[in-house]
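for the writeup, i need someone to sanity check this before i put it in the appendix. the sequnce is what the collaborator sent (i think, or maybe the updated version? ugh). structure was predicted straight from it, no edits. if anything looks off just tell me and ill rerun, i have time this weekend
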Amino acid sequence: MSGREVVKFEDGPLGIIIDRDENGRIVVIALSSYMETSCIGQAEASGRVHIGDEIIAVNGHCIYSLMEFANAVTASRPVYVTFRCTESIDELMKENRKKDDQKKMKSTYQKSLETYKKKQEYLRLKNAREHKEQITKSRKKPRKQENPRKNSRMNDLGGKYDYFV
């Protein structure tokens, strides 16, 4: 599980190399040793700083940029650096994979929802069109049926005469 560690650093190099990760967090990307003496750095010697740990604060003040961190640790010693500890890089990778999977699932859900909404809109418009056509058909005046008495004489005569005198 992740927790917080406050590590005290005395004079000399801290023994960490930091950078921003893909999420914009300031993290420890490597532990370094003193080049001249081949001694381990203060961070590694403390046993409480690990690769992948996020830097949260220096001397109780939140850190938002690499420059802020550099200024804070060079101002005066000792410095107290607050780390958000992770068990390992594997945990970070799992966390990032999980976030990626969640983004993919969310994206798939959004696409499915969008497709569903488009289909519903299409069906709604289709039904509205059909309903309008039915109303239009029902409003049309029915054809006048011929009055059976109108041409009854002509029919009596076999329909041979066009007019009567």
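The beta strands are 3-9, 16-20, 26-31, 54-58, 61-62, 79-85. The chain has two domains: 3-87, 89-136.
thx in advance!!
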